[in-house]
Amino acid sequence: MKKFYGKPDFVSIDFETAIAHQICAVAVVSVKADEIVDEFYTLVRPKYNRYSYHNSQVHGITAAHTQGAPTFRQVYPLLANLLRANVVVAHNESFDRNVLQKSMQEIGANYEDLVLPDRWECTLSIYRKKGFKPANLKACATRMGIELMHHEALSDARACAKLYLLK
User: Fold this and answer.
1) Contact 12/29 with Cβ under 8 angstroms?
2) Considering just the CA atoms, what is the radius of gyration of the chain in Å?
3) Max CA separation in the chain (angstroms)
4) Would you tell me how many other CB atoms lie within 10 Å of the CB of residue 166?
5) pTM
6) What span, in angstroms and rounded, lies between the C-alpha atoms of 79 and 62?
7) Residues 15-48: pLDDT tens digits?
């Protein structure tokens, strides 16, 4: 990755959840001049460190993994700096946006302070409009030749960024 200064052209984001909107992992990939220039990833200890069996089966993260991880409240200041006033991209943006908004609400943070639009850029919608069937992240990444370890937040955020670049 190149060293860069200033604002990225866009950031892509991905959350993994333990239960409902309770975050257990987050990744943000920053893109400038069509290159990934920065990556952020962390596990997050969800409230009560509880997990749905189904969610753990999907992403492989369990309470043992996040026992010593920071809480969302602790991660939020850095996350806010990465997102604030940027173009944000997600695959199925409504899911990731809702997870962020509900998590912010739980800690008393105001979504409007991030200066983000009501809807983010969505690679799922973009590739559906291109006629991709299915248009889930794994299918799009495979079809576009993008490496992916599906449901690993950093890999998902990278793949989303690359899909957005290829739109």
Assistant:
1) yes
2) 15
3) 43
4) 13
5) 0.95
6) 22
7) 999 999 999 999 999 999 999 999 999 999 999 9
